[in-house]
Amino acid sequence: MREELDEAALKGIILSDGELKPEEFSLHTAELLRAGGPWGQAFPEPLFDGEFKVLHQKLVGEKHLKLMLEPLYKGFPTNVMIDGIAFNVDLRRWPDASVKTVRLAYKLDINEFRGNQSLQLMIDHLEAK
To answer: Where would I find the RecJ OB domain in this sequence (predicted)?
Structure first.
């Protein structure tokens, strides 16, 4: 198995493409990323990281956490609100109303529901601050 995985995967290291600026949280950016594929094992989909203020959180389904978030850019509020979803969360830890700020590793995605599109973060890693 060691021959199949790189060092980052073996150590659980998350490689990020960096922090997005407030104006980059847009459907346009998500569409550009979607069109930039195809993504695969040797060419992974862009993964971003950053700190976010938690505005709302709730459990959906059996183990998925739906969040309403505000990106904090360089520690400052951005007045941007965005949905995020984390799948298969640890139910002993989440949801947690005492958590006001999180650090995330996420992918930008487009949520399509009843003919409407909205920006959504697909959360790969969620850490309370």
So the answer is: 17-125
